[in-house]
Specification:
Blueprint: H1 6-21, H2 35-41, H3 43-50, H4 57-60, H5 65-81, H6 85-90, H7 94-116, H8 125-132, H9 140-150, H10 176-190, H11 193-203, H12 212-218, H13 226-244
Helix pairs in contact: 3-5, 3-7, 5-7, 9-13, 11-13, 12-13
Length: 254
């Protein structure tokens, strides 16, 4: 594990705990809190999510746990600024709604931070051969493929930033039209109607990209947290693909 300042971490933890104790009681109504109070209240959520990321050299590159916490808190602040308090107030379970909204964006910020500070990964040929000999039992390659396509963060980092960490990619780019057709064939085979439509419209496989609210309206998903249900369907669909698609079907695209 890479070294980091234990003293600074302990001081930060103590400051957060004291700040949370000074917050007013919410009693399930988070609209009583202002922007800074919401950020303070959900600082422990950032640490909880950051701790789930591996800090090995292969996984996070130069980043330590403190770096992951910093990236997560930047994501938390941006997420709080995007909160729709009117939607939150109408939610039947405000705690679940706000945690779901913030968690997705915190994890996305941490992943972007890791990606921007780590060079591109190339899979050695002997590993590819090993996967080919595994008779479809190895799901790691399938997971890598679908996660890279469907669970990549919608808000991509600025291409001009962190140029020092970028390695030129001389490989041939995907033919996006053929890839989209191929993906839609796999989706139709393994997903139900709603799961298929959510992925198709979320990533614009044969249409313009739609946000979660518009997808919910098109699919007649009703309720104050309809957009949360769309997000759940998206993750559910990707996991179903990982569980059911043979690795040989995606190997040639990697």
């Amino acid at each position: 594990m890479k070294k980091y300042s234990i003293q600074n971490y302990i001081k930060w933890k103590n400051d957060i705990e004291k700040s949370i104790l000074r917050l007013p009681e919410v009693d399930g109504d988070y609209t009583k809190l202002n922007r800074d109070q919401i950020i303070t209240m959900f600082c422990p959520l950032v640490e909880n999510l950051a701790r789930k990321f591996s800090t090995s050299q292969q996984a996070s590159g130069v980043l330590t746990i403190l770096d992951l916490l910093q990236e997560g808190h930047a994501g938390l602040i941006q997420a709080v600024d995007r909160l729709d308090m009117a939607v939150l107030k109408e939610s039947e379970d405000q705690e679940k709604t706000i945690k779901s909204f913030l968690s997705k964006r915190i994890k996305g910020a941490i992943r972007r931070g890791v990606d921007s500070n780590r060079g591109d990964i190339r899979i050695p040929e002997h590993k590819l051969n090993e996967i080919r000999r595994n008779f479809g039992k190895n799901k790691k390659m399938v997971e890598m493929f679908f996660n890279s396509i469907f669970l990549s963060i919608d808000e991509k980092p600025n291409q001009d930033e962190n140029m020092a960490y970028q390695i030129p990619d001389k490989s041939e780019p995907y033919n996006m039209q053929l890839l989209n057709i191929y993906l839609m064939g796999i989706l139709k085979k393994h997903l139900d109607y709603k799961e298929y439509e959510v992925l198709r419209m979320s990533y614009g496989l044969d249409c313009d990209k739609h946000d979660a609210k518009s997808i919910a309206a098109i699919l007649n998903i009703e309720g104050n947290s309809a957009y949360v249900r769309v997000s759940q369907l998206k993750k559910q669909a990707v996991q179903k693909l990982i569980d059911n698609v043979d690795h040989s079907q995606v190997l040639d695209y990697l």
